[in-house]
Amino acid sequence: MATINLSAEDFERTVTSNDIVFVDFWASWCGPCRMFAPVYENASTEHPDIVFGKVDTEAEQALAASAQITSIPTLMAFKGGTLVFSQPGALPAAALEQVINAIRDLDVEAALAEQRQSA
């Protein structure tokens, strides 16, 4: 599956109705964003079972603000509707692949239970 553009109208529905969703917050004027775009697009075709969304922070300023985006590109990952990864900066392909594999292997329920115990 190729990347899909997300807006405030479909962001929450996309995140909650799919098992794994990656979201790239970007802007057209951002050099690192442009460098990361083909890496992200390639990953989306290599992993058709995962949703790869993109949010244009210029067009979706309110959405970017509600997601507390302070640096772009920022990559977020959701599993089972839960935010499980958020990191600013452009990732090289090998690092993105590591994140994808880690998210696939993550047991969200166990991680949440562990987080509640340590709180």
From TrEMBL:
Keywords: Disulfide bond, Electron transport, Redox-active center, Transport. This is Thioredoxin. CDD domains: TRX_family. Pfam families: Thioredoxin (PF00085). The keyword Secreted does not apply. Residues 2-105 form the Thioredoxin domain. Belongs to the thioredoxin family. It comes from the Bacteria.
